[in-house]
Amino acid sequence: MKNLYQLTYSQIKSGLNKSEFTSVDLVNSLYDRIAASEPKINAFLEINKDKAIEQAKQSDERRKNKQQLSDCDGIPIAIKDNICVTGEITSCGSKILENFRSPYDATVITKLKEKGFVLIPRANMDEFAMGSSTENSAYQTTKNPFDTSRIPGGSSGGSAAAVSAGMAPISLGSDTGGSIRQPASLCGIWGLKPTYGRVSRYGLVAYASSLDQIGPFSNDLEGIADIFEILQGADPKDQTTASGKTFDSKNVKSKDWKGVKVGVMASKDTESSPGVLKKYEDIKQYLKDQGAILKELDFSLFKHSIPVYYLIATAECSSNLSRFDGIRYGLRKGGEGKLEDLYVESRSEGFGKEVKRRILLGTFSLSSGYYDAYYGKAQKARILIKKKYDEFFKEVDFILQPTSPTTAFKIGEKTKDPIQMYLADILTTTVNLAGVPAISCPAGLDENGLPIGVQLTTAHFKEEELLSYAKSISEIPGCKITLPENIN
């Protein structure tokens, strides 16, 4: 039998329910893997085995007494460091919150506890979720399990790397402009960005409130379906949540592509590396051979998505992070002299370079005389992008694109050029601007052995259809990815 950390989510779920092993056995196996791999990966900011073992013991006792909370009782899940867990530090990868312990649970954490999951906080992340490589954490750079000289993606790089390296079968991340899908692609796993409002943001430390969405990573699709089913639903604590159609994971079944209309990009429009482009073209041809109707869509409007996204996101981050001032929340420095000096010293020392850059950009775009010229125009362009998606989904059932234009790049390769770093999100940001759901599916390896992902997108509240056809993509020859056993 495989080591327990090598099992997929669905194998773990089945094994626990058949009493083939206990939750304590599983957690011990995962922490053995963490002990061996974490020094090379840096996926976690904190590793508290004792707490995880205690939760696992409680789960085993419930199962022994036939009082398990769900079929998922006892399954470990890693938690991104911007999702609040009672009594745990929630630092958002920042110095300004390095000693903040949450006094409450996020709604998603409450739901996971109600089902008996074993929580493993805190997965590393780009500071306040601002980044595409997890190089902006105030503490450490997370590395890609397929090649530790490369980035895992961001901002949820710790959550993705933990699953890819076998340190957790599933994890939670947050997606503002691709921060679940892009690291899922670069780490060779599954990552879902749900319809905006489908999952409560209560207890998620906000970066850009109109774009943020919590979602799952998993080493198989069943993990994505199960976690999303648990997390979905309206929440009185978050007025942006929507009830919509209820998602049922039992309805996620592999579907036939015959007659399905799939919107695709022309090769010249993908701006992708040769390895990514070849895999994308191979998948397009496979779908066509299976009877799918491929339609090239006009994505020219989406070329403006990066400036539109960054104007809106930075404006919202400027507003959201204003409360971290050394008085109400966070690190306090100074205190002598003027009140303004306390603000300046606390924020100067507490925030990193990228966060300061985005606060400055957002404050400028919201300032008197520039609001209409920048932020106002960006909001108008956002409406046009949403309308374009509405038009697309009148013509096609799904849109298929590469998730990332390249495979994982080298650590340090883009840190000195913020524009090139921002362009890493060029294929994912429009999904957040429009609020539609999308999933990154493993699509095989390139010639260098690095993972490639493809992004499948559909209309609002159609996650059942999205995951069913994503399952079909996983069955395409050459798309299966074996996660690395040896971390180098």
Describe the structure.
- α2 (23-41) packs antiparallel against α3 and α9 packs across α11.
- This protein has a domain at 4-257 and 460-474: Alpha-Beta Complex (Amidase signature (AS) enzymes).
- A hairpin with a 5-residue loop joins β9 and β10 (451-457).
- With 488 residues, the chain is of the alpha/beta class.
- The chain has 15 helices and ten strands.
- Residues 25-467 form the Amidase domain.
- Residues 139-158 are annotated as: Disordered.
- This is Glutamyl-tRNA(Gln) amidotransferase subunit A.
- It is an enzyme of class 6 (ligase).
Q: If you compute it from the alpha carbons, what radius of gyration comes out, rounded to the nearest whole angstrom?
A: 21 Å
Biggest sheet: strand arrangement = 2-1-3-5-4-9-10-8-6-7
DSSP strand content: 5-15%
Task: State the share of residues found in helices, binned by percent.
Answer: 25-40%
- Main sheet properties: 10 strands, mixed
Low-pLDDT regions: none
> What is the overall silhouette?
globular
CATH C-level label of the domain at 4-257 and 460-474 = Alpha Beta
* CATH fourth-tier homologous superfamily of the domain at 4-257 and 460-474: Amidase signature (AS) domain
CATH architecture of the domain at 4-257 and 460-474: Alpha-Beta Complex
Q: What is the CA-CA span between the terminal residues?
A: 24 Å
Q: What is the ordering of alpha helices and beta strands? A: HHHEHEHEHEEHEHEHHHHEHHEEH
Number of strands: 10
The residue-averaged pLDDT reads 96
Q: What structural category do the secondary elements indicate? A: alpha/beta
Q: How many helical stretches? A: 15
- Determine the CATH topology of the domain at 4-257 and 460-474: Amidase signature (AS) enzymes
